[in-house]
Amino acid sequence: MTNTPVTASRLVPYITARHGEQADSLSNLSLRPGSKGLFYLDEGPRDRDERGVLWARCSQSRYGNEITGRPRWREVHPSRQRECMEELRCQVCVQQSSRTALGYLFLAAQQTDVPADGWEGHLTAQPPLCLEHAKAAVEQCGHLVRAGAVTLRVRVPRLYGVIGTLYRTGPDGEPEPVEFDGESATTPLPYKQRQLTPWFLASQLVRELRGVTVVDLDDLVPAA
Questions:
Q1: Does residue 8 surpass a pLDDT of 70?
Q2: DSSP letters spanning 27-43
Q3: 104, 168, 171, 174 — which has fewest CB within 10 A?
Q4: Who contacts 3 (Cβ-Cβ below 8 Å, separation ≥6)?
């Protein structure tokens, strides 16, 4: 839910990047001896996720607990997106996402080529939502308005992999990004590809949706 809204609104998702937030200098990125992948020269425990993948750093525009700055609608903030996906929190308000016996509440854009098994196994970098903000998203998110929104209840949103940048050793012995064209640039890298994950700098966490039920958002009511 990071595309430009079709109507003016104060609603800005927590995961949306803001003007003034800056990516960390790549001069802090280096290579482990023996061609064993990437690391930060001043690496800390939060720089890697639980699967050991290194994450892109980015400053945060905060005033107390409030995220400030004009939204960059088409971009997400790496650590805020990761936070919501890891903890399955609402991507707008960071509170508990909606969950019932049918599972967590996710939104997806309607597709013209939905596979035979429906949305089972769908990969998403969009964190779940609470019911209030799911309803706001289908009205305000330009991409969902144009394509049409599908409401999904998901029993098992499995950790799948990451979106980001693959690196290799450059001619000067320093990390060099591998360039990809088209959809390949945003294709998730599965965690199971352990030969590549040490060379990956992640910017979005991806889950695989299992136990999926398509529901009508208008029929959903707040949990008791």
A1: no
A2: GGEEE-TTT--EEETT-
A3: 171
A4: 73, 74, 141, 142, 143, 144
Question: What predicted TM-score, i.e. pTM, was given to this entire model?
Answer: 0.91
Joined tokens for residue 141: 């998110």
User: What residues does each domain of the chain span?
Assistant: 16-219
Contact 212, 122 (CB under 8 A): yes
Question: Which residue reads 């001043």 in tokens?
Answer: 42
Structure tokens belonging to residue 135: 């309803």
Residue 23 tokens read as: 């990516």
CB 79 within 8 A of CB 127: no
Q: Which of 173, 198, 205, 180 is nearest to 39 (CA)?
A: 198
Contact yes or no for 58/22 (Cβ under 8 A): yes
Q: What is the DSSP letter of 135?
A: H
**Pair 11, 150: CB distance under 8 Å:** no
End-to-end CA distance of the chain: 26
Count of positions (residues) in the chain: 224
> 22: which DSSP letter?
-
Q: Is the dihedral of CA 93, 209, 136, 185 positive or negative?
A: positive
Partnered with residue 40 across adjacent β-strands are: 29
List, for residues 39-64, the tens digit of each pLDDT value: 999 999 999 999 999 999 999 998 88
Structure token pair of residue 178: 């591998």
